[in-house]
Amino acid sequence: MDYQNILIENQNGVVILTINRPHALNALNMATISEVGHFFELGYKEIENLKGVVITGAGDKAFVAGADIKEFTGIESPEQGSALARNGHVAFDRMEQFHKPVIAAVQGFCLGGGFELALACHMRIAGEKAKFSFPEVNLGLLPGFNGSQRLPMLVGKAKAFEMLMTTDMIKAEEAVRLGIANHHVIQGEEINKSIEIIEKIATKAPLAIAEVIKTVNAYQNKEADGTEQEINSFGYLMTTDDFKEGTAAFIEKRGANFKGK
Ligand code: CAA
Questions:
Q1: Can you give the pLDDT of all 261 residues of the chain as single tens digits?
Q2: 208 CB-contact burial (10 Å; exposed 0-12 / middle 13-18 / buried 19+)
Q3: Candidates 19, 20, 25: which one to mutate for ligand 1, based on the most atoms within 8 Å of Cβ?
Q4: Three-class SS of residue 190?
Q5: Ligand 1 atom 14: the closest Cα is on which residue?
Q6: What number does the ligand 1 atom closest to the CA of 143 have?
Q7: Looking at domain 6-201, which of 2.50.20.10, 3.90.226.10, 1.10.10.60, 3.40.50.11720 is its CATH number?
Q8: Which residues line ligand 1 (CB under 6 A)?
Q9: By CB atoms within 10 Å of each CB, which of 52, 72, 199, 253 scores lowest?
Q10: Domain locations in the chain?
Q11: Exposure string over 16-31, b if 16+ CB within 10 A, otherwise e
Q12: What is the spatial distance between Cα 6 and Cα 12, in angstroms, rounded to a whole number?
């Protein structure tokens, strides 16, 4: 597949997968999500002696600033909204289940769907300008790519509630303290640190690493309905007036006036 929105660079068996939409702070449009999904299903097979994947964003301002809000216009039914959420779930689940380590190298804004992309990676390395937040409630939404389920597993329920409801931005050091990021590093070293970890893992037994990934992921899979609930809530919220107002306010660069409808 000829990718239009992501770059694939092979550095001695470590793939650097860059979300490459810097004009939109690397926001995830649907095409980008399918390309990420395609890479983890089929694209990786073209890489010889693959050791692991580092995911990052183009430029130094943003890792990924969320799902592409401009693509939300035109969604009229809960089914359409849920389908959008489900696409993200499928691609990100595939990445989480990938048999080689996947590490997010976060060098700037890591927001909404971008935070969810990072949370679906096995580890996260935060540069000193990294900022993590779920701003969805400012748009009349909630996370749609499984963030509501993955976040509390790392930070606990109370902190997850605080982050999801206040939209507060978490900086690199605090992200490590909370268990969101594995390490914080000086700006510009996020990819190198990720490669260093993948190179270390590459010296271990590959089948054992694949089983570690499967097993730790099984711990997370509690067969809860939270996942379905999130997909359905996302679809429902996309049909509310508050969501239309929140996204219009973002695009028109003004404050939102929510009515609770
Ligand atoms: N979707 C689409 N475009 C986006 C975007 C997004 N998520 N985030 C930024 N952009 C675009 C802006 O519209 C702008 O484009 P124009 O130059 O054409 O106007 C460009 O990127 C640069 O952004 P700003 O001018 O806004 O940059 P800034 O430095 O003033 O602000 C920011 C940076 C605080 C990250 C701000 O861009 C912002 O708040 N972005 C939106 C963040 C957000 O709400 N993310 C959640 C999306 S919803 C979601 O992700 C749902 C889900 O779970 C599936």
A1: 799 999 999 999 999 999 999 999 999 999 999 999 999 999 999 999 999 999 999 999 999 999 999 999 888 899 999 999 999 999 999 999 999 999 999 999 999 999 999 999 999 999 999 999 999 999 999 999 999 999 999 999 999 999 999 999 999 999 999 999 999 999 999 999 999 999 999 999 889 888 888 888 887 666 666 677 788 889 999 999 999 999 999 999 999 999 888
A2: exposed
A3: 25
A4: helix
A5: 24
A6: 53
A7: 3.90.226.10
A8: 24-25, 27, 65-70, 88, 109, 111-113, 116, 135-136, 139, 141, 143-145
A9: 253
A10: 6-201, 206-251
A11: bbbbbbeebbbbbbbe
A12: 19
Catalytic residues: 116, 136
Give the C-alpha separation, 191 to 150, whole Å: 23
